[in-house]
């Protein structure tokens, strides 16, 4: 009986210590994973572009557009990027094309609004296929089917 008691006590102590050690390791891991990274001008601009296009999507579907082209989008050519090496010929080509397509939305007839809008969104997707594919699923939600 004494042996059984000793075995039970030792088991409880060893499992109790193991749980505390595991919890401590998990807490340290959680602290290391939470790193706040400052966003770049380009990242912020692209978020604004997304929000803007999301806000006009319903207007485009209805064939009416009450807003004008946001001139701030032109800063795509000068905004600081998260990784400056990403500003290459491919990026410059797609950014110019995006600006052209985005401006075309505001110059198009009611019949062409959806086509012009989708052209701008597809330009974003094409660029992100080459550079940073992470936001593609979110960008695709902007497309009008």
Secondary structure layout:
Blueprint: H1 2-33, H2 41-62, H3 89-107, H4 113-130, H5 136-140
Q: How would you sum up this structure, described in words?
A:
The protein has 145 residues and is mainly α. The chain contains five helices and no strands. Helix 2 runs antiparallel to helix 4 and helix 3 runs antiparallel to helix 4 (113-130). The chain folds into two domains: 1-35; 41-140.
Brief digest:
By secondary structure, this protein is mainly alpha-helical. It has five helices and no strands.
What is the rounded Rg? 26 Å
End-to-end gap: 75 Å
How many DSSP H or I helices?
5
Extended strand count = 0
Task: List unreliable stretches of 5+ residues.
Answer: none
Which features characterize this protein?
mainly alpha, 145 residues
């Amino acid at each position: 009986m004494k042996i059984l008691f000793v075995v039970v006590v030792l088991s409880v102590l060893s499992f109790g210590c193991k749980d505390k050690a595991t919890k401590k390791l998990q807490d340290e891991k959680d602290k290391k994973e939470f790193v706040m990274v400052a966003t770049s001008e380009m990242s912020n601009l692209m978020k604004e572009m997304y929000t803007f296009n999301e806000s006009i999507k319903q207007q485009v579907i209805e064939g009416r557009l009450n807003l004008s082209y946001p001139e701030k989008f032109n800063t795509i050519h000068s905004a600081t990027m998260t990784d400056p090496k990403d500003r290459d010929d491919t990026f410059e080509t797609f950014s110019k094309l995006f600006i052209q397509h985005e401006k075309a939305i505001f110059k198009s007839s009611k019949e062409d609004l959806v086509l012009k809008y989708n052209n701008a969104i597809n330009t974003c997707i094409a660029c992100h296929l080459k550079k940073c594919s992470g936001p593609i699923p979110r960008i695709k939600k902007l497309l009008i089917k």
